[in-house]
């Protein structure tokens, strides 16, 4: 089977809610990384076969196939198409999978995969809320078929995070200690310049925006003072991913494209898969998906040098680590969504850019990425450094 290679990956700095990127139109936000990727790789943009972007809540500035719009906003060739996909939090990771599958099938040679989300401008679940305003049914509760299968149950990421904490016996203190480590790791990574190679600074009226805004100095004492999201619960805002804004993109190439365009690939896609799990539990998907990926590849936890599991909530990652016996020192070593933020549609390729750079920095061979997704799903990508 033909190989799929990762040539390069770029991202914006992540802007906090109401922060540096809040006023940037989503199409311009995505166009920035697309243009930066084309410039960095030196490819002829006219040779790109497709542009695949992940994005959720595709209304307003994110409506109308933003992948296509962003490519045109970037001033790139008209004949190159674009498509926008929604696999919830895993949207841009799935974009990478579709790009790699196109290359591995032999039908495409150069594909850009990425994602964008301006959560300041378009709040999470805005599409569902707008639909309710116009009298449309919700995706779950008002479907007779859904109710017949799952009953009258609350489908909520917050409820799932609480259920996971209870089932895996993860205390609030455990989650707060994990969240603190996420911030500390992210701040250390920023101080050491670990993200500099993957960030394409954004020029704004007030100056150059080049450093992630979400990581902060905090403490266990500050976290302990927060109210739980549910009475008697364990989840607080401190142990959840931050609402934020950003975009990211990477270039996937075939062996033929690498040779024809004189490219130097940085990694090979060793494995890609996606699995489903109970949609009511929703956030447990990475456990089964990671187990499936390791079984399919014959790799073990010990063979993987770096893991990235998106920090939607601390309980998600802690349960995944506990279930699969994955050591914390290999996981999210530069912080995760709790510290760096989770711009939903862009997170998959944001994480992959960071993972790729860290794999090169440390000299490791394999890195595995996974993330929980709405509907009880999880993608897994394993990269091999070249």
Automatic annotation (TrEMBL):
Signal peptide residues are none
The record places domain Thiolase N-terminal at 5-255
Q: Which residues form the Thiolase C-terminal domain?
A: 264-385
Recorded hits in InterPro entries, A to Z, give: Thiolase (IPR002155), Thiolase-like (IPR016039), Thiolase_C (IPR020617), Thiolase_CS (IPR020613), Thiolase_N (IPR020616)
Task: Provide the alphabetized UniProt keywords.
Answer: Acyltransferase, Transferase
Instruction: Kindly name one Pfam family recorded for this protein.
Output: Thiolase_N
Which family is it part of? Belongs to the thiolase-like superfamily. Thiolase family.
Identify this protein by name: Acetyl-CoA C-acetyltransferase
């Amino acid at each position: 089977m033909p190989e799929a290679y990762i040539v390069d990956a770029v991202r914006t700095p992540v802007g906090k809610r109401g922060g540096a990127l809040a006023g940037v139109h989503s199409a311009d936000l995505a166009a920035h990384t697309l243009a930066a990727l084309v410039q960095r790789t030196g490819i002829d943009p006219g040779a790109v076969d497709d542009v695949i972007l992940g994005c959720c809540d595709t209304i307003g500035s994110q409506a109308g196939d933003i992948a296509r719009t962003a490519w045109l906003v970037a001033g790139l060739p008209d004949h190159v198409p674009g498509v926008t996909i929604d696999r919830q939090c895993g949207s841009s990771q799935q974009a990478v999978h579709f790009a790699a599958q196109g290359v591995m099938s032999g039908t495409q040679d150069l594909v850009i995969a990425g994602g964008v989300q301006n959560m300041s401008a378009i709040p999470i679940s805005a599409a569902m809320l707008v639909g309710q305003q116009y009298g449309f049914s919700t995706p779950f509760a008002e479907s007779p078929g859904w109710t017949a299968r799952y009953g009258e149950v609350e489908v909520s990421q917050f409820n799932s995070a609480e259920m996971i904490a209870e089932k895996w016996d993860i205390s609030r203190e455990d989650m707060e200690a994990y969240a603190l480590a996420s911030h500390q790791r992210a701040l250390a990574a920023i101080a050491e310049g670990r993200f500099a190679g993957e960030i394409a600074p954004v020029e704004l009226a007030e100056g150059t925006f080049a450093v992630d805004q979400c990581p902060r100095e905090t403490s266990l004492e500050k976290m302990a003072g927060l109210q739980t999201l549910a009475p008697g619960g364990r989840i607080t805002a401190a142990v959840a991913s931050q609402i934020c804004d950003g975009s990211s993109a990477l270039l996937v190439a075939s062996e033929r494209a690498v040779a024809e365009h004189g490219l130097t690939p940085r990694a090979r896609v060793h494995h890609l898969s996606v699995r489903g799990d109970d949609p009511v539990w929703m956030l447990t998907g990475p456990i089964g998906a990671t187990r499936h990926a390791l079984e399919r590849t014959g790799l073990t936890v010990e063979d993987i040098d770096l893991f990235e599991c998106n920090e939607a909530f601390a309980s998600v990652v802690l349960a995944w680590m506990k279930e699969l016996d994955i050591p914390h020192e290999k996981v999210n070593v530069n912080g995760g969504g709790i510290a760096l933020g989770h711009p939903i549609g862009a997170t998959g390729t944001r994480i992959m850019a960071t993972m790729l750079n860290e794999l090169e920095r440390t000299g490791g061979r394999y890195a595995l990425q996974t993330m929980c997704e709405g509907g009880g799903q999880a993608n897994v990508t394993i990269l091999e450094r070249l």
